[in-house]
């Protein structure tokens, strides 16, 4: 009978026990499963992980975020890809494990259309990758609300997205930031619209500027701030006050629920300057202001922000003849004016600049009564008369009929020249319409009473033709004294051209028919002696 050595039996039993214990100590790990492992070392390129198998696994350090590297002893989940590679080590992947776990969590908790938070991790062709527990794809066209912006600046940001597609067979997800922003905007809009009230002050950001106003984003909905509601004062364009991106507070002026339009105001945040205008600028008081606009009929003067008055062109000067306000004023000029009238309801103020000085016309009326003599300089010569400066800025007119008592065909340009000093008599002053009538002939006595005595009816005179008109010819019977031979007296038909029968300078005999002393006129007729000679000639 064979006898076994006890020591050998004991040794064999111990080896079997140790082998069993070793097999039991190794986890049941299989390829394709997720296992928990502990990091035992970290190198420059790899991270060594103990997953409780007979050999360790190695993970490329690129599978970890650069700014969030693990620490030795830290436990992580990994996917077992292969139990042994050529070097006898387990092939594992943290990234794939994360994707599997993330995918399961998303499938269990989310569906298409849901909102999910994620961190934009990197840029890829056609868009961005987003970490939502696994990597999801964000197309570039779905990053921004409008157009394509710079996507690089979003990398690393944690924001909300909308899941637009879950592909289960391929285990990938497509998300959209644009769709989430649209949804967020609509939700904010609905909430905001339920809270809007007229008179409410609300914050907003300038979104767009046009010629007629500014569109303000109130947080999901836009409102219009019209140019007329931006300032109580004058502005030419909204860009003078605001720029795109400015954050401002505005007042809700109105909300049309049917049209979905919101009217906003900025000037309404401050008191209306017109409320107390009558007390601030009483009629008759003087006020200083800045010329802000010039038009052909006057100048607009800003007394304060929101309050402007009009200086009509007729209120600019007592004496100067102004054709356009720009002749004496420029935009930006600071001027003093007198308040002439206030229409609070229409928000109109009438101002006068000339009223800040004494009215020189009142002085003229006092200093130059009718009948008094003046001396002045000829400022202008026209066909109808001569303008003579009486005092600076005030002229009087010597009408052509008041130049000579007897000469009815006076040509002012032959007698007067600009700058010439003349003496005249004040005939009339109308300060209201700023008109002064002067007379030159009134410096001498009226000669017509003496003329009437010298030239009785029937007197025959030798004369010279000085003017030929359609209605007759003027005959000078003595120096500067003329009479009229009418067309009828000349026995001519109205259609006959007198210039064919008579010439200027021609000598003629005429008989006094009538002297009108009051009107200063002499009417002539052909003398009988000439008529007789005409008859004798015809008989012969």
Under CATH, the homologous superfamily of the largest domain reads Nucleic acid-binding proteins
In helices, the fraction of residues equals 10-25%
Estimated structural class: alpha+beta
Number of domains: 6
What is the count of β-strands? 30
Strand arrangement, major sheet = 1-2-3-5-4
Catalogue the unreliable spans: 1-7, 9-13, 18-22, 529-540
Shape estimate: rod-shaped
State the end-to-end distance.
211 Å
Beta-strand residue percentage: 35-45%
The CATH topology of the largest domain, please? OB fold (Dihydrolipoamide Acetyltransferase, E2P)
Determine Rg (CA atoms, Å): 55 Å
Mean pLDDT: 85
Main beta sheet strand tally, sense and closure: 5 strands, mixed, barrel
Q: Quickly count the helices.
A: 9
Give the CATH level 1 class of the largest domain: Mainly Beta
- CATH second-level architecture of the largest domain: Beta Barrel
Characterization of the model:
Strand 6 and strand 7 (127-131) form a beta hairpin. Helix content is 17%, strand content 39%. It has 540 residues and is α+β, with helices and mostly antiparallel strands. The protein has helices at 6-25, 94-109, 177-195, 277-280, 360-367, 412-415, 448-454, 498-501, 528-539, and strands at 34-42, 46-50, 57-60, 75-82, 90-93, 115-124, 127-131, 135-139, 158-167, 172-176, 201-209, 213-217, 222-226, 247-256, 261-265, 286-295, 298-304, 307-312, 334-343, 348-352, 373-381, 385-391, 394-399, 421-430, 435-439, 460-469, 472-478, 481-486, 507-516, 521-526. It folds into six domains: 7-97, OB fold (Dihydrolipoamide Acetyltransferase, E2P) (Beta Barrel); 111-182, OB fold (Dihydrolipoamide Acetyltransferase, E2P), CATH 2.40.50; 196-269, Nucleic acid-binding proteins (OB fold (Dihydrolipoamide Acetyltransferase, E2P), Beta Barrel), CATH 2.40.50; 277-356, Nucleic acid-binding proteins (OB fold (Dihydrolipoamide Acetyltransferase, E2P), Beta Barrel), CATH 2.40.50.140; 360-443, OB fold (Dihydrolipoamide Acetyltransferase, E2P) (Beta Barrel), CATH 2.40.50.140; 448-539, Beta Barrel (OB fold (Dihydrolipoamide Acetyltransferase, E2P)). The strands form six sheets. Strands 1-2-3-5-4 form a five-stranded mixed barrel. Strands 8-7-6-9-10 form a five-stranded antiparallel sheet. Strands 11-12-13-15-14 form a five-stranded mixed beta barrel. The chain is rod-shaped. The chain has nine helices and 30 strands.
